[in-house]
Amino acid sequence: MVDRLEAAVEIAWKEAKELGHYKVRARTAKQAWAEAEAIRWTLAMSGRRIAHGEARKLAGPFMDEADLIQEGYIGLLRAAKRFDPDRDIRFSTYARWWVRAQMTRAIDHTGRPVRLPGCAVEQTRNLRKAIKRFEDMGIEYKVADLAVEVGVDSKRAEFLLSQGQTVSLDQPVDEGPRSRSLEHFLSDDSAIDPDQEAMHTQEIRRMLEAFDHVLSERHRYVLTRRYGLEDNQFRTLSQVGKGMSLSRERVRQIEREALVRLREQANIRDFVA
After folding, report:
1. The domain spanning residue 236 has which CATH number?
2. Are 106 and 75 in contact (CB under 8 A)?
3. What secondary structure does DSSP assign to 106-138, as a single string?
4. Is there a single domain that holds both residue 131 and residue 105?
5. Structural domain range at position 67
6. What global pTM score does this model have?
7. What is the tens place of the pLDDT at every residue in 95-111?
8. pLDDT at res. 76
């Protein structure tokens, strides 16, 4: 219901741009929704201690405490969006479940070489719980017994349990006198291609030279600072505004003016030798 209401407010706001008599009501709805979002944020952040407490319990080799706290904040926001005070339950009690669910889901996704869907992660967790129950009770079990306990078929249970196995990168993957490990065949996709880096640097230099011909000094300053064209450091409107002693909104206007000016100069490359 909340999602549908948010979508309705956005549609009304867009339609109001064409229907003048509708604009007052749309603006009222937009303001009311912004106030509701501020209240939701305040409610969610009132449970920050829950996120910190659960993060300390679940921190491990796959995710550290700081990352888990961020996941916990996401859980708090989801809890605040769905919280119904008429159900006669405290928000802290309700939010704790959402925080822990968000954290455990993140751990499961991060700790696997192949990411599984949310339902598969939950079923795998239930299978492991069933295994622990059988072992604690000293009962012998088979995969079929676990499948019945969780409510899935045997083949799916076997598949989900097999996903918990890990492969060492040092393990040989080919035979012969010069066997090589799996790590040998894995490329570093994050490594920067030197040719691409050189082309990127050259293109940025040409762009800055073109800016000198079509933009004012103020426009150049805003664009280069905003998009990190000189030092590769992106900055917010507020950060750029502090350096110019201007408001955030004024910087936004200058940025818009500069971008419009660049769009109008379709032949901007002609200014560069």
Report:
1. 1.10.10.10
2. no
3. HHHHHT-SSPPPHHHHHHHHHHHHHHHHHHHHT
4. no
5. 2-110
6. 0.42
7. 998 998 888 878 776 65
8. 92
Task: Please answer whether residues 80 and 45 qualify as being in contact, where contact means their C-beta atoms are separated by less than 8 angstroms.
Answer: no
Give dist(CA 184, CA 169) in Å, integer: 9
- Length of the chain measured in residues: 273
- 257 C-beta neighbours (distance < 10 Å), count: 15
Q: Is residue 172 part of a domain?
A: no
Exposed e or buried b per residue across 4-31, where buried means at least 16 C-beta atoms within 10 angstroms of its C-beta:
eeeeebeebbeebeeeeeeeeebeebee
pLDDT at 50: 92
Collapsing DSSP to helix, strand or coil, 172 comes out as strand
Do 216 and 257 form a contact (C-beta atoms < 8 A)? no
DSSP structure string for 2-68: HHHHHHHHHHHHHHHTT-GGGHHHHHHHHHHHHHHHHHHHHHHHTTHHHHHHHHHHH--SSS-HHHH
Residue 217 has pLDDT above 60, yes or no: yes
| Region 8-23 average pLDDT | 74
H-helix or E-strand spanning residue 201: helix 194-214
**Same domain, residue pair 8 and 90:** yes
Report the C-alpha gap between 102 and 82 in whole angstroms.
Answer: 14
Return the CATH number at 8: 1.20.120.1810
Residue 49's pLDDT band, with cuts at 50, 70 and 90, is very high
Specify the number of domains making up the chain.
3
- Taking the C-alpha atoms of residue 195 and residue 201, their distance in angstroms, rounded to an integer, is 10
Q: Which of 3, 9, 8, 4 is nearest to 31 (CA)?
A: 9
Same domain, 7 and 106: yes
